[in-house]
User: Fold these one by one.
Assistant:
Number 1:
Amino acid sequence: MTEAEIVELYRKRDEEALRVTQEQYEHYLMKIAMQILNDEEDAKECVNDTYLAAWNSIPDNKPERLSLYLGKIVRARAVDRVRYNTSEKRRASEYTVSMEELEEVFSDDRSPEDELDAAALRDAVKGFLLKQPAEDRKLFLERYFYFRPLKEAAEQCGMSEPKAKSILFRMRKKLKAHLKKEGFTR
Amino acid sequence: MKKNQLIDAIGLLDDAVLAETDGGGADGTELGTAVVTASENKATIKRRFRIILVTTVILTLIGGTAAVASGGIGGFLNLGNRIKIENGGELLQHEYVAYGDARVRTSSIRGAVNKDMKTMPKTMKDRPLWSNTSPNTVVKRYEDIEDAIDYIGYSKLVFPKTDYPFTHIYTEVTGFQKEDSSEFKPGVICFGATQRYHSNPEYWFSTSIYIYTDSWPMGNVGIHTAVTDQATYTSEERRVNGRTFCIVLQEDPSYSEGHQLSTGIFWQENGVFYYFHIVYPEELREEAEKVAQEWMESFP
């Protein structure tokens, strides 16, 4: 079944939409959640929250790419959950590893009152990414959007792990400079 | 704080940028190397009986294709589902699903929760769906259990009161829209509390209460738990003051020392699901059994 057909099932409030979504996207969504959470139980819960969110939201929204739409939701749910979990006990996952990598880009050098505009920051990151070679951009997203392990992200982009590591290192440096120029870091 | 915002900003990137990736495996590739192992589950010790009601209901709707066992206990149908994990082991999920449709009428929920539902359309409209909170869920904290009961306003809701000090009282209500309506109604109401039963703050018990209304789109509802394949898992029915409770005892050596024993108790009455959970070390086994018994006896 195509994505558009599944979206149509949601819009018709046909519960078949949930079954098909689970059948076609469960692995994809579990993978994103697991890479962030490293906990099957939590990941499963986030994935099911995602089905629910899709069920509630698609009458109002008509996603062009259902997979990306679901992927964004599950990522947000998983990030939310890992923050809650790590406030109690730090757990090693690709999320925490990625966070450590991104720390060099965006250190906590501002006060909590120094709230950033999320949309402006997103646009700045997008502006930066669009200036990067397509291959590097894909690698960055595999690593920091989907939280793929480095080795796997490298494989996805058809490059060696050391090369991917080196590209990401350079990208983080460049992103840091870009965000500084845009006034997001000092 | 700020690196969190960077992670969030990346999460908000639009589809045009993300479309260059393969969708992180949207083609249905197998779980990667991050699959949890049974031993790694130790970190989740305090939540090993986490109630995943949304999960349960959706799985119930969709139908568990991996069901391996079923049976009835108390007022529940116990469905077992095996989940393979990376180290060759399995997690065994137990779904305690109520017989028949256990939802209550939405109109029987008369508390201030209904006022919060009225602001939900605006919240839903204003927030991006992938923000890190669910716009159709309202979470509140309380100092007093009665305030939580009042907030829900369901006349048949009771709280099993024991004398142990409360450490946390909350409600979490998920609103749903009926078809052809822009109005939100309380669909799933979670009401819970934790109480300390020992001087060591590691040891506490929780009471979790769930009400599904007919605004929730699915019929069968229940409670969902998961254990590792290393767990010894036994269940029994116990009759206390005319009620038959479903009791689940678990011993799991894969969990950390002092947290290997736990007891869960399930009960459903007037469309309300009650769930008790306590974790304890061997030396507190009798104490935990006493607390569990008091909990069952405390229903008015």
Number 2:
Amino acid sequence: MDYALQQFLNAASFGAEYALIALGLAIVFSLMGLVNFAHGEIIAIASYAAFFLILVGIDNPAVVALVAIAASVLGAILFERVAFRPVRHAPVATGLLTAFGVSIVVQNAFLLFVSPRPRPLPVFGGLNRTVELGGLKVQLLQLLEIGVTLAAISALLVFLRRSTLGLAMRAAARDFNTVRLMGLRANRVIATAFAISGLLAGIAAVFIVARRGSIEPDMGFMPVLKAFVACVIGGFGSLGGAVLGGFVLGFVEVGILLVLPQSMGGLKDAVVFSLIALLLVARPQGILGSRVELGDKER
Amino acid sequence: MTRLLALDGWRRSVIGGLIAALPVVGVCVLVLLFAPAYVERLAYAGLVAIVVVAGLQVFTGNALIVNFGHTVWVALGAYFVAILTTPPAMKALIIPDAPWGLATLQLHPLPAVVIALFAVLALATLTGLVISRVSGIGADILTLCLQIIVHSVLIHWTDLFKGNTAFFGVPQFMTLPWALLIVTVVLVLARLFRDSPWGVQLRASSENLLAARSMGVNVARRRLAAWVLGALISATAGMMYVFFIGTISAKSFYFSYVFLTIAMLILGGMRTVSGVVVGTAIIQIGIELIRMLENGPVMLGLQLPQMFGLSGLVLGVVIVLCMVLRPSGVMGTREFDDLLRMWLARRPGRNGDRP
Amino acid sequence: MLEIDCLTVRYGPITAVRDLSLGVKSGEAVALLGPNGAGKSSTLLAIMGLAAGMGRIAFDGRNLTGLSTEDRVRLGIALVPEGRRVFANLTVAENLTLGGALLSGRAARDAATDQVFVLFPKLAERRAQVAGTLSGGEQQMLAIGRALMAGPRLLILDEPSLGLAPLIVAQIFDRIAALKASGLTLLIVEQNATQALRVADRAFVLANGQIALAGNAADLLATGNLAAAYLGA
């Protein structure tokens, strides 16, 4: 029983991490058709902000986490302003390659100005302890990850349903020009979307750093690749799909690790991505792709 | 010259391909005659890059699907010939437990290359049948999946591919002139495909999928053709590479190499074969120059600090600037020979004697 | 209130509108008529800043050149777009809220919503329904209501009768007449000339991007000139 619960929490916490990041990708994609591969560098920015804070002697974990999240929000807004606004109306491939360019710039900036090698960052290490919950031993980090993710998704849902800007974002996912006819500024709507995606990535970054205990320039690449896959599983551009896809991926990954013999554990990625490819061929629009969800794009 | 440029049909494509190869040949001849050995090695690396990017151009440039998987074929081409041609004495050290008796097999490079190309043909057809059916972002992702799957297999099937460490001891017999010949053939091939009815249909379908389909173009078939041809060209690049260097490691074909070659393609202009040459040349030379800076040279009597990451930083800035300012790349949609023709037509006094 | 001077709109080599000049006075309803492809919609897009045009467009004496679509809306111009373009994934109430996005405060928004519901009681019944499931006529009402939420001084309607049954068209135009009676300035673009002319004070008939005919709506309705203009004679 203990073992099963442990694996469940394992899968759910990975899923939560993917969902947070995937949600950020989906929000931006649903609004402007941009596949933001530079999203991983938002995670890196948050982590390096934490690193610099420690360097200057501030080591209260809560303060560090808040500043890291703020840094990722600012970073996301900055990316939009500098790199993505000029290519806003360009074809998908142009946006995708611009995002890659941004990603390469930021990674190499950290490489150049900090270090090409991983640096230890144990500030959130305190989260890695086990706590007793109703007689069961569980990891605090995993509980927090699942809890905070669910809270963030609920908050986002309320924002999208209750606030004018949230309504505008849902509407703009379908028809941006008509939203402009309401007098709402396109730049503001899109900047908000990037800010939200940065916020979610920042939260994910805190958990990622807590788990790894270190930072390195390309640390955002793998998580975003996974999140990207989560979006595809759920149906690209669908916010509900991103969350669902994130959790599905988390469970599939942990499941495959359990099923694969020890000697083939290294082939986990190969198996996971083969499954993804099969899904994509069988159902190119993803699981939720055809349904009308929060922000599906009509095409 | 004017007469050559006025040719039509496939001859025009061949001439166009040769004109694209001309500056490469010129530079390499100069290198062979005057440059020190290390420059020759750099030139060879440049030629390999041109072939890789040409393979990428055949698919991505015509179908307008971003291909994150093209270096898979470079890696596989290199590994296949490496496994087939490395002397058994070497293999006893590297891959003693290789399946199917491959540990004791040694082939002459020529049959090895043929077998490797057929193996790549088979694998590319198989993957292409899947990828060509999906459009848009789905197809981009599939190429990404392919990259991760193959890389994962290369790393973990240590009995055959040596895994995470380098595979060494491959015979080294390639020289710059031979590579130059391959580059020329590949550029002509890429150009022939671009101008062929299939290439034209594919490019049309990438602009407007529905219109092309409604005119009866079998888009999936055209994509498959481009995918397979691109894979074969990329595999050739891998063989050129391993027969020169003598050693390979899967890591060097992973994402950083993917991005580097994609950057070359988009900077030059992915729609043209000439763009392949331009983009590769600019980035390859640029990066070599910046690498000198990275190592912290002494300049004007000052010891500059080491600056790892500078080349990547510049590469990224180039990609972003290129996308913002000139998304269609340096060459846009024009080949070298198109520019030549326009220039000839514009020259005063020559308008009269054009055929 | 709205003055257009020598407006030309080009899409690449194609000229959609050529040297067009017209004006709409405060409190007036003006119809812009013409067959498909005459340049009506391009004119509207230029007014809203959604298509690039050469020439001068002024609202209340203020030159609109260089202003974004959003800023033009903020000045008090509202467009009911062709094909309605309601936000299909949002409810009726949410659509209206977005229409009143520029209003400050919940009270102002609720008041504006109530006004819309007075004009279109049907919308009040359907306020919690997702807009994509409304009938064509109801969607048109919602599109007009959404545009009214911001309290515009000039309301532009692009083909309000498009794709609607005659009975519904009559209902919609009855409401448009009510809006005019309340003193709102209107610019109505229509292919359905008869309906538009019944509401309008003046009308311009466009053909091939130019004004082919202009005059009092009543006169145009009475004489047979209209058909001739439509046929391009």
